[in-house]
Amino acid sequence: MNPSTRVERLLARMTLSEKLGQLQIVFRPRLSDAAQLVRDGIGSVFWPRSAASVNALQRVAVEETRLRIPVLVGLDVVHGQRTISPVPLAQAASFDEALVEQLAALAAAEARSGGVTWTFSPMVDVSADPRWGRVAEGFGEDPHLTSRLGAAMVRGYQGSALSEPTSIAATAKHFVAYGQPEGGRDYNGADVSERRLHATYLPPFHAAVDAGVASVMASFNTVAGRPMHAHRGLLTGTLKQEWGFAGVVVGDADGVRNLIPHGVAADSPDAVTISFDAGLDVEMGGLVSEVEAAVRSRLDHRRVDDAVTRVLMLKESLGLFDDPYVDAAAEITAPSAPARALARRAAARACVLLKNDGTLPLAPARRVLLTGPYAESTDHLGAWTQSFGAPAGRIADAFRARYPDSLVDVVPGTGFFDGDDADLAEASRAARAADLVVVLVGEPSALSGEAASRSDLRLPGRQEELIAAIAASGTPFVVVLENGRPLVVADWIDRAPTVVEAWHGGTEAAWAIVDVLSGDEEPAGRLPMSFPRSVGQIPIPYAHENTGRPATVRGRMELHSADIGLQGPDNVQEKYTSKYLDLDLGPQFAFGHGSGYTTFAYEGAQLSAGAISTAALAEGATVRLDIDVVNTGERDGDEVVQVYVRDVLASLAQPVRRLVAFERRAVARGERARFRFEIGADELALWMPGTGWIVEPGVFELHVGGALDRTTRVDLRVV
Ligand code: NOJ
């Protein structure tokens, strides 16, 4: 850390009380209380309000406090401020780093115009369990995808400099292993091995730190029994000392106070002392002030100075000492036309075509029925928006506007949670009278996000019955899903020949969904998280490690075998293998699944060298993987080329496949495009407990393709 002279001088003048004021963010104070809190020296405020009210707080800070230190204004700007983008899980489905960066930049510009300087995003928790409602806020189950998109989001929020009027400080959260709560219940503990911690959960945080993230938030969970707000080894050891993180470690809301019910702190002063000793820099809630008298002599003063320095450096890098105010007249209070266009494109690019019998893109139809609770709902914004996010429209309106020559009938058939037989019967009658049906179903936004875990991942209410009724009508139909997590679709998926996963797409979702149905945009996204066949199968990550007894059915799900000759006869599973007696192998749809409106062929995969030495890898050498992708279909389209590695023989059991690279690119009809990836130590290494990242000699299979079940393979030998 290299504090400026200004920060050093300030620190030298501060009383302990003034220092402790900087080490907390008060959470959503009442309007009437906020000014007094700032006058009393509170350093940061969680403040979902207008530019004018932020300016008023800053005025108190710089005119009515002794040291004139401006405040940080924090807010959960998670997927948009005024213009709401698709939820992060949907953004992940786009497999489009540039898009994620642009969306974050848009959110930052809108938020900063209102005086917000600090967001608590991105969530880079690798999400192991779809019951956990917070999967909506992250980038899914894969550490590589999460690392790349998390870093892109950090770049988007923070721009070229935090002092820019369009930048805000980002927070990588929740450090760490919050994505593996036992039972999928939010806030629950995570008992992770050292290997999994390092190979799966820490890398996205490391990537965010490398991208320059300004802050990191401690998580609510325990790791092997130690609550993260008290975890010195990870907060100080790994994050600050090993990785050199010089930013601010912020606690989660009341996370310090929560050490008491966790049973590791006797009382509030104890909780505060333990947290700051562990490496926390800012407590979220305002507990520090409450216990100031009791902790003054207990806190390590060098630790306090270090934390205050970090906070002041952040304020300085945001330019707040030079100008704490924003131009209230220039506050962005509604989406601009370009912002809407970007959000619309993003919501379309996030769509995943789960299956298609050719009904999509839609051919013009005379009589169209729109059914399902999403036909007329405006609940498209998703799990984490502030009340001032721009509302979304209705799919029915967007559909009618796009198809003025069709007779568009809307019969919801059921609500999200309830419906009666008469409504279902009416939808069924309307379906029989239509030439085409679009079934718009899903989970309302409130079913995902914080404290929104579910034990049943089927469509709620009678929505599955609605799909069955439409299927029985015999009229061609398409199912569109909107949800914030992977769903269990087993009870109806075989009856629905065409299904699009649209997620919660934000302000422009209704228009984007119609763009996708019509073919104006292509649903070429890919699943960032596997869809389980049943809740009983969770967790079902694609990158599970080899078991000693992999279950295999010849010709199917070979992904779930190590190809070591345990196959039985066709469609017969060996008895003593790892599987459920009552479920097919593998997930319903695996990570990376999805297609588009055209087809691609892969040709000529080749490596620049068949072998590379561990010594060369250690020096940063790479092998180039080239592959030609040919658009063999009738339309221009996007392909998401994915590269997976399997380390065939290693000292530790390795994942059957592990994503190490990807690129989404447009390839015009009939065109051939060369995709190029560099494979080096980062792609080939495994985490060895006690040693760290190492590359072991041996054969590495590289599987390249548009989804896990359509890959071609080349082998690389490490010598
Ligand atoms: C609790 C959540 O876990 C965290 O992600 C969020 O930033 C804070 N509350 C503040 O709203």
TrEMBL record:
InterPro entries hit by this protein: Cellulose_Degrad_GH3, Fn3-like, GH, Glyco_hydro_3_C, Glyco_hydro_3_C_sf, Glyco_hydro_3_N, Glyco_hydro_3_N_sf, Ig-like_fold
Gene3D superfamilies: Glycoside hydrolase family 3 C-terminal domain (3.40.50.1700), Glycoside hydrolase, family 3, N-terminal domain (3.20.20.300), Immunoglobulins (2.60.40.10)
Keyword Metal-binding: no
E.C. designation(s): 3.2.1.21
GO biological process terms on file: glucan catabolic process
One Pfam family from the record: Glyco_hydro_3_C
GO MF term set: beta-glucosidase activity
Keywords in alphabetical order: Glycosidase, Hydrolase, Signal
Record bears the keyword Transmembrane helix: no
Entry superkingdom: Bacteria
Catalytic activity: Hydrolysis of terminal, non-reducing beta-D-glucosyl residues with release of beta-D-glucose
Domain Fibronectin type III-like: 639-708
SMART domains: Fn3_like
Recorded family membership: Belongs to the glycosyl hydrolase 3 family.
This protein's name: beta-glucosidase
Species the sequence originates in: Microbacterium hominis
